[in-house]
Write a structure and sequence with these properties.
The protein is α/β, with parallel strands linked by helices. It is 29% helix and 19% strand. The strands form 4 sheets. Strands 1-14-13-17-15-16 form a 6-stranded mixed sheet, with helices on both faces. Strands 2-8-7-4 form a 4-stranded antiparallel sheet, with no helix packed on it. It has a 4-stranded parallel sheet with strand order 11-10-9-12, sandwiched between helices. Strand 7 (79-88) and strand 8 (94-102) form a beta hairpin. The mean pLDDT is 94. The structure holds iron/sulfur cluster (2 copies). Residues 377-378, 380, 382, 384, 407-413, 423-424, 427 line the site of one iron/sulfur cluster (SF4).
Length: 437
């Protein structure tokens, strides 16, 4: 029987029947106008190197990364730059985008894919290519892969690359489909990333129920002669989180009596992008995105060009059944509110949802009833009720500040609180307070 490794406490089973259920992805229409943002990563805004009026080609470099955390930006379609727009993102930062009107011929689309051998390339050349094509982690804050590799190279001892195929949230359906449709590219991307970082082995962390996928990964890896293993992990949310994944893998290390050393994890979409950059000399032109929620007529997983406006994608899914109450990107657990349907898909977009009022979690906040639900689901073992009350009291009790800092914002407590108290935000506020001397 397969041994399943999980984080030891808390967490929750998260289900949502409004997630798309495609068996395969659908290619979205090419947008007549694409908005290519200069921030699609965690660091500084990239500098545009083209101006209004210029023609750009598909995959052309149009924004140059600016220091650690920043990444190069490329045009996803050929056309003419017709203007520059700016807007405030849901995290409060300003962003700006070059608006490109589709014109001219395609360099990549519909052409025979030229493949470039990479085995003989020196590692630094692979790293240079990843940097040039602006490859970032295609989720979360969009940390550049080159920064992650540099960090790994500064660690001592053995390093393992973890391929994170952990689907603890049904809104990760786009990643799951990508794994099944682009298995070979994900594996080759992992082998390339391992070579570029000096990782000694590849560990495929797959969710319980995805063992067949894990076996296909291992079969594909055999041809490269790189040591690889599959680890089956639990499906409770937030198993995918860095801390919870590491807990499960350390348990595996101990029980199997093997050595993992330091580890770094990359998701399947990122590894497919690593493959495309190094083997096809292609930046991230499109990504798999899940579109769903109770307000959407035809939920589906689509392959969408970077820069496509969100409103166009919802329209391609048949539009809305009724006026949505909440539109956001990402997962409903931690999603970012979409303030304008003209906002574009970026490298880190993996899902959009639109909820009707009945499915929306925007409920009136009520008093705590001390039910203890928040404590039982916290994977860190915190007492969110207590930390929330400390934050509200305004008292600066030093002993609680360090506890609050342990919160990694998974949102399990928020989702399970019957009084709809925004616990995690309060706890993170508390963590930011300065201790009293
Ligand atoms: S889940 Fe909500 S209502 Fe229950 S103890 Fe925690 S804060 Fe109070
Ligand atoms: S958000 Fe923080 S306090 Fe709430 S369950 Fe997650 S780790 Fe625990």
């Amino acid at each position: 029987m397969t041994k399943v490794y999980s984080f030891p406490r808390g967490g929750m089973v998260y289900e949502d029947n409004t997630v798309p259920v495609n068996k395969e992805s659908v290619v979205a229409y090419l947008p007549a106008l694409s908005l290519i943002p200069m921030i699609q990563h965690c660091g500084n805004r990239a500098y545009p190197i083209v101006s209004v009026g210029d023609m750009v080609s598909e995959g052309m470099l149009i924004g140059r990364g600016n220091g650690a955390g920043s990444a190069n930006v490329h045009a996803s379609l050929p056309g003419r730059v017709i203007r520059n727009v700016s807007w405030r993102m849901s995290d409060g930062r300003m962003n700006d985008a070059l608006v490109i009107r589709l014109e001219g011929s395609f360099e990549k689309l519909g052409k025979k894919q030229e493949l470039f051998p990479w085995n003989g390339l020196p590692d630094y050349e692979i790293r240079r290519t990843l940097s040039h094509f602006g490859i970032v982690e295609m989720e979360g804050s969009g940390r550049p892969v080159i920064d992650i590799i540099h960090e790994v190279q500064n660690t001592k001892g053995q390093v393992s690359l973890v391929v994170r195929c952990v689907f603890d949230d049904p809104w990760l359906i786009a990643d799951r489909l990508l794994c099944h449709e682009r298995t070979a590219e994900v594996v080759e991307g992992a082998v390339i990333a391992a070579k570029a970082s000096g990782a000694a082995q590849i560990l495929f962390a797959v969710s319980h129920g995805e063992e067949e996928l894990g076996k296909r990964f291992l079969q594909e890896t055999e041809q490269y002669g790189v040591p690889a293993n599959m680890i089956v992990v639990g499906t409770k949310y937030p198993q995918r989180n860095q801390r919870e994944l590491e807990l499960a893998l350390r348990d595996y290390e101990k029980k199997q009596n093997i050595s993992i050393g330091s580890m770094f994890a990359l998701g399947p979409a990122t590894l497919a992008a690593v493959h495309d950059a190094v083997k096809c000399k292609k930046p991230i032109l499109e990504r798999y995105v899940a579109i769903g929620g109770s307000a959407v007529k035809n939920p589906q997983v689509m392959r969408v060009r970077i820069g496509t406006r969100i409103g166009e994608i919802f329209a391609e899914c048949g539009g809305f059944i009724d006026e949505p109450k909440r539109i956001a990107s990402g997962s409903p657990i931690m999603g970012n509110v979409v303030l304008d349907l003209d906002e574009p898909v970026t490298k880190t977009t993996y899902a959009f949802f639109a909820f009707l009022k009945k499915q929306s979690r925007i409920n009136k906040i009520r008093n705590c009833i001390s039910c203890g639900e928040c404590r039982s689901v916290c994977p860190v073992g915190l007492d969110p009720e207590e930390l929330y009350k400390i934050d509200r009291s305004g008292k600066n009790q030093n002993e609680f500040l360090s506890r609050a800092k342990e919160c990694h914002g998974c949102g399990c407590c928020d989702i399970n609180c019957p009084s709809s108290i925004p616990l995690s935000i309060a706890i993170q506020n508390l963590a930011l307070r300065k201790p009293l001397l």
